[in-house]
Design brief:
- The structure is a homodimer.
- By secondary structure, chain A is α/β, with parallel strands linked by helices.
- The first copy, chain A, has helices at 19-28, 86-96, 116-136, 151-155, 169-173, 179-185, 205-213, 231-245, and strands at 3-5, 14-15, 36-40, 46-53, 58-65, 74-80, 101-105, 144-147, 163-167, 192-197, 217-219.
- Chain A folds into 2 domains: 3-65, Hypothetical PUA domain-like, domain 1 (Ribosomal Protein L25, Chain P, Beta Barrel); 74-245, Alpha/beta knot (3-Layer(aba) Sandwich), CATH 3.40.1280.10.
- Chain A is built from 8 helices and 11 strands.
- In chain A, strands 8-7-6-10-9-11 form a 6-stranded parallel β-sheet, sandwiched between helices. A 5-stranded mixed β-sheet of chain A has the order 1-3-4-5-2.
- In chain A, helix 2 runs parallel beside helix 3 (116-136).
- The model of chain A has no long low-confidence stretch (mean pLDDT 95).
- The interface between A and B is medium-sized, with 35 and 35 residues.
- Chains A, B: Residues 70-240 form the Ribosomal RNA small subunit methyltransferase E methyltransferase domain.
- Chains A, B: It is found in: Cytoplasm.
- Chains A, B: This is Ribosomal RNA small subunit methyltransferase E.
Chain lengths: 247, 247
């Protein structure tokens, strides 16, 4: 059944006001009276809803659904600004794979420089991609998207996390293969995890030192060299496998 | 160091003849005498090679390198023909994530119909994508790409596999979450594994029945609905995590 994220205050019945959502509901899906959809408000509970009045965009919330599609831990993916539209892929696939937040920061070896105007535009585009992917993959929460203007701003957020992992190609090359698995096995439910990925050129020695000082663990993600946009998809899949399937 | 797959007979010294490879070596990378690269022949051994003569494209094979980036099991990804360029993404990311073979078959619910001419063109394009990804991710073996004209042709290949897993959304929906993990834990090294994915519309009941009769196990890949091109990336990442990192 079609699912929509609703950013309005929860009330029953509810009149939907977001234009994009209305367009999809009544122009694309052609909903009419008594059709049912799933509405998800900010509390993350999926609710079965019935169209009461398709002209006035009014829905009755029929009942709560006991469906949880969220990872048992809250994973924030932080990417050094990559080139091209790689963040688009991470936004879509990362959302399908359960990430809670997508962050991007200007890494030492980021080639692209984005000014404020460009950042705002990029963020809006990514938020749309995330919303589409979250509705299709039936998430309970809409991942947030955030760009940091400086690396200091980014690192000021580190204190809120229970675990910080830094994907480091050199760790993979030297055959390190247990830090990631050990860290996952010790995670408690609802932990906040930050996963840091470099841009195409990798993570600089200064950054590695700073991340380690801030408590970050360097992890390898297997023996193959993964592109910057592939590594977060690997990590999210591994987290799902470790915490959702292999328990 | 730059790596190239060489489809010629192994000899030392060797004169490289493939035009695309030569273009990358001498036009893009501008190799000159005494520069070093890694050459990988069909035996999967990486060899350090030195340019002896850049005019005649002659290399000396200096020594074998003890580097293995292959998954401990041989994984074949079989996709029901999907729409658009989704196979391109699976070819590139699947190669980075260690797949051995990429197969595509006409599924009951495949929307696209590809004639023979189109199939040949698609296959050539995918082989190029795979080669680029295999060189960048430092694989020892070049994944093969194969299209099947009929589902019967596809299913005739099932006998060669030690394990056949069918990614089935309905399994995920009912909360099944241990078949995949149990199957991976029982895998022996060098096993041949077939992973079957449906097209966008999913796998038909007839197909499910036929695959199960042929020994296939239905597996869920977590509680989120994954797009057809995302599911194989999840499965490959999980296999790497289970067999390479969490051991």
């Amino acid at each position: 059944m079609q699912q929509y994220f609703i950013k309005q205050k929860l009330e029953n019945p509810i009149t939907i006001t977001d234009k994009e959502t209305l367009k999809h509901m009544f122009a694309v899906m052609r909903l009419s009276t008594d059709d049912e959809v799933v509405l998800v408000f900010e509390d993350g509970i999926k609710r079965l809803a019935r169209v009461m009045d398709s002209e006035r965009h009014e829905f009755e919330l029929v009942k709560d659904l006991d469906e949880n599609a969220e990872l048992p831990v809250e994973v924030t993916i932080a990417m050094g600004f990559p080139k091209g539209d790689k963040l688009d892929l991470v936004a879509q696939k990362g959302t399908e794979l359960g990430m809670a937040n997508l962050w991007a920061y200007p890494a030492d070896w980021s080639v692209v420089k984005w000014d404020k105007k460009k950042l705002t535009k990029r963020q809006e585009k990514l938020e749309k991609i995330v919303q589409g992917a979250a509705e299709q993959s039936k998430r309970n929460h809409l991942p947030s998207v955030q760009f940091f203007a400086t690396k200091d701003n980014f690192m000021q957020e580190f204190a809120q996390f229970d675990l910080i992992l830094v994907a480091y190609e050199e760790s993979a090359k030297t055959g390190e293969h247990s830090v990631f698995a050990n860290a996952l096995q010790q995670l408690e439910a609802n932990s906040k995890v930050l996963l840091i990925f470099g841009p195409e050129g990798g993570i600089s020695p200064d950054e590695i030192e700073a991340y380690q000082k801030a408590g970050g663990l360097l992890v390898g993600l297997g023996p193959r060299i993964l592109r910057t946009e592939t590594a977060p998809l690997y990590a999210l899949s591994a987290i799902s496998y470790a915490l959702e399937l292999n328990r």
